[in-house]
Write a structure and sequence with these properties.
The protein is α/β, with parallel strands linked by helices. The protein folds into two domains: 243 residues, Aspartate Aminotransferase, domain 2 (3-Layer(aba) Sandwich); 122 residues, Aspartate Aminotransferase, domain 1. It contains 15 helices and twelve strands. The strands form three sheets. The protein has a seven-stranded mixed beta sheet, with helices on both faces. Strands 9-10-12 form a three-stranded antiparallel beta sheet. β5, α8 and β6 form a beta-alpha-beta unit. It starts with a strand and ends in a 16-residue tail after the last helix. Bound molecules: pyridoxal-5'-phosphate. The site of pyridoxal-5'-phosphate has 12 residues, from α5.
Length: 396
């Protein structure tokens, strides 16, 4: 059996989405900008896809939704665009973000610091969420942009976006949210929250990889990252990724359609898995369930090194994550765990389990059995963990 519990890394393409995109590879493969029928026959599908994207996040007609290659591009675009438009011009000098953003935000901010930008990385509380007060303290008249994620990729914790956007606006700053881990899991409404920019990525909501988007409220001017043939209304050059756009539109419509299912059924399965984990001694889960998106659990299993757990589960066909980059030979600690102030033991024993609407009860039952067995096996050989003798009559 193969059980995929790493949906915050990427998701399976919904077969309905795949079906919609296939004709645009070998049948309707024209360049939409060409003047012949090969080009023009792609237009109705592109129009439909853009409508689906607008409607999925509740954008208005005078907003822009620009298709990008991924959310990494969208995030970089906002930060660097603001740098060119508001900071290099001398108008402002400051960007605020959080200490638990995806590297596509933090690495871009680190780069901007080398260009003289003042960046504040807001701390998070023990649940991994930025407190409103810390934003109020950090923001000043020179703040150009506040960029805070909608939901965290490691913990699944949801951030108070609406209130943060309001605080940013009161101080004359623009507000961006990386909503990559929110779309398809909870409702994302750009008008209700008042965000100015919003990033998303199709492969996180059952669309294909290599296509994402950036929402821009009221078509606010933002210096382009990609100059060239003036595609996307001159905002982003590059021949349109027709299959990708068609697929992302369809995936967005389905993401909204299945929200109710996410709230009920994905939450139920996630809670079942989480309850089973918490039956194990010395297991800690980050953040209250009701504050998280429906699909995510970030647990720490004392005495069980995250990587060892992944290897063990992988032998049984179960895919999970430690949440760390795993790019080095060394055992990585989970960066979000570190940001919430968890000790080294908790950070090194992180296990992220993320479900999707394609996860079945049978898969969860199978995962529960094998996680419990893996914990027993790995703790038995752990040099740091020993089962403390239980003394329920400790008062005697
Ligand atoms: C919160 C968040 N932002 C941005 C990204 C980057 O998305 P993409 O793979 O489309 O570049 C990810 C991917 O893991 C993410 O989880």
């Amino acid at each position: 059996m193969r059980v995929y519990l790493d949906n915050n890394a990427t998701t399976i393409v919904d077969p309905a989405v795949e079906e919609k995109m296939i004709p645009f590879f070998c049948q309707m493969y024209g360049n939409p900008n060409s003047l012949h029928q090969f080009g023009s026959e792609t237009h109705p599908a592109l129009k439909r896809a853009m409508d689906q994207l607008y409607s999925g996040i509740n954008a208005k007609d005078n907003d822009d939704v620009i298709v990008t290659s991924c959310a990494t591009e969208s995030n970089n675009w906002v930060l660097k665009g603001i740098y060119f438009d508001k900071i290099k011009t001398g108008e402002k000098d400051h960007i605020i973000t959080s200490s638990v953003e995806h590297p596509s935000i933090t690495a871009a901010c680190k780069f901007l610091e080398t260009q003289g930008v003042r960046v504040t990385y807001l701390p998070v509380n023990s649940e991994g969420v930025v407190e409103i007060e810390s934003l109020k303290e950090a923001i000043d008249d020179k703040t150009a942009l506040v960029s805070i994620m909608w939901a965290n990729n490691e913990t699944g914790m949801i951030f108070p976006i609406k209130e943060m956007a309001r605080i940013a606006h009161e101080k004359g700053a623009l507000f961006h949210s990386d909503a990559v881990q929110a779309i398809g899991k909870i409702a994302v409404d750009v008008q209700d929250t008042g965000v100015d920019f919003l990033s998303f990525s199709a492969h996180k909501f059952h669309g294909p990889k290599g296509v994402g988007g950036l929402y821009i409220k009221d078509s606010i001017p933002l210096t382009s990252l990609l100059h060239g043939g003036e595609h996307m209304g001159g905002r982003r050059s590059g021949t349109l990724n027709v299959p990708g756009i068609v697929a992302m539109g369809e995936a967005m419509e389905l993401a909204v359609k299945y929200l109710e299912y996410e709230y009920k059924e994905v939450t139920r399965l996630r809670n079942k898995l989480e309850d089973a984990l918490l039956e194990i001694e010395d297991v800690f889960v980050v953040g209250k369930r009701e504050h998280r998106v429906p699909n995510t659990i970030l647990a720490s299993i004392k005495g069980v090194e995250g990587e060892a757990m992944l290897w063990d589960l992988n032998r049984y066909g179960i895919a999970a994550s430690t949440g760390s980059a795993c790019a080095s030979e060394e055992l990585e600690s989970n960066p979000v765990m570190e940001a919430i102030g968890a000790d080294a033991d908790l950070s090194h024993t992180a296990l992220r389990l993320s479900l999707s609407r394609f996860t079945t009860e049978k898969e969860i039952d199978y995962a529960i059995i094998h996680i419990k067995e893996a914990v027993k096996r790995l703790r038995a050989i752990s040099s740091t963990y020993s089962y403390a003798p239980k003394n329920h009559k400790s008062g005697l």
